[in-house]
Amino acid sequence: MEKRIKIKFNIIAIIGIIIFCFAISPITLQNDTYYTIKIGEHILQNGIDMQDPFSFHDIPYTYPHWLYDVGIYLIYNISGMVGIYLSTVILSCILGLTVYITNKKLVKNDLISFVLTLGVMCILRAFVAARAQLVTFILFALAVFFIEKFLETKKKRYAIFLIIIPIIIANVHLAVWPFYFILFLPFIAEYLLTIILDLHLEYRVGIKFRKILINILSKKDKNKEEIEKLKKINEQKNQKLKEVIKNNSQRRENPYKVKLEKNNAVIYLILIMVICIFTGLCTPLGDTPYTYLVKTMQGNTTQNISEHLPMVLINSKYTLAIIAIVLTILIFTDIKIKLRDLFMIGGLLVLALMSARQLSILTLIGVYVINRLLCDLFDKYDPEGTQQFTKLIINPFGTAITILIVILFSVIVYRQQAGNKFIDISSYPVEAAKYLKENVDVNNIHLYNEYNYGSYLLYEDIPVFIDSRADLYTPEFNGDKNKDIFNDFLKVSGINIYYEEIFKKYEITHLLIPNNAKVNIFLKRDQNYKSLYKDDNFIIYERLTNNQ
């Protein structure tokens, strides 16, 4: 009977998750998707040549998500943008189902796992897009599941999965490859802490030192009174040590707030982590998995791109909600938290505060911790509550209400993008790019453009000044200290320099900029710049001084 209830509920949960994941999948393509298509095409035609073919700067490129780029291009080549949209929907559904299945298998409460999965996907809807991160979200969720199951069962298949995952990440989205190892740290830190605490060094060092001193004094056959005194002290300390060990054991069985568990399987987990370090070599990109993050942190892109900036906590309602749930349970109930879970949620919170984009990982991985706390809470205060509610849901009336509620929220979310097209003409210069290709030899000009729509221009086979592959345009990656293209773009867009200095440096011949660009205030009054094209959103200039 119980098995039948679980099967019925799982069917309802899966249907509900798929409906909601479909609703949150964006129709309009994001700027990164455009360069993804072109890079995939370039790789299939030319291989991984480690050289950027899309800007006019002649700079090297590391292809950090080459495998995903190839996959997206193949989908695009077969079914166009419809195919890319459908692939996003499918990956979104896979992510939702992965979060649900892994949570219910770890915590054994289908109802709470279902509700939390919908909450997770609601938060992650801002991160769901045709980007490589959607694949790595799935892999990270699986990684924590496999770690937990390996420590629980010690089965080799979970270890094999843990070694395969970083190989996939290194080829699909190597920018986040180093983050994979952070997932191991809470488990290792808990184990090392238990070892240190179990050593009781404050007692053992003193006992050992006194034994050495007794041996020295015994050889001299003197100071018998001192020897007896030392032996008596050691006996007292040994007795005290036994009492401390016994008390610590009792405290671990019934801790106040934090549960400290010692699992010797962590030794093998450390070995797996060491093996995984070498998976960065399993790519055609050389040592890029080991150097990419370091170079990125050395550059200035993380200080100037909104998703990389530190989170303003008061503006992040989801982060505040996560903190509130955890603190409320720990402060106002007697529910206890595992030390590794405390390390995990605390570490992910710190990362989220350092970079707003890490809210996605805090949500994705933090849900395991919250799920465990909520299940402990219900098991203690209302052990039959979730079971009774589950039975209500699987009744015909309960099923209809549940699905209707999910559909209602899905419709509310979907209505926000209903009627959207694959390409947003207010954000991307569709007609302006068409004008350039029809009236200008785009392969023999140096076009200045801004960051957010550069990817669309290269998608249209127009060489760009810059696009959303930000790191590519920094000296750390192109190897030329005089080519800080990203910083030069910031100077022009922010009017922090006389624009003509930068345009002269890069021999700019034409400009395609938004009508509301700051620099346009000056260009439309500058007689050295001739307006060739203008629509509601973009304007094209020819720089006359370049021809003089």
Oligomeric form: single chain
Give the topology string: H per helix, E per strand.
Answer: HHHHHHHHHHEHHHEHHHHHEHHHHEHEE
User: Radius of gyration, Cα only, in angstroms?
Assistant: 30 Å
Biggest β-sheet, characterized?
Answer: 4 strands, mixed
Write up this protein.
The chain is mainly alpha-helical and 548 residues long. The termini are far apart. β5 and β6 form a beta hairpin. The longest helix has 42 residues. The chain has 23 helices and six strands. α3 packs parallel to α15 and α13 packs parallel to α15. The chain has a four-stranded mixed beta sheet with strand order 3-4-6-5, with no helix packed on it. It is globular, with a radius of gyration of 30 Å.
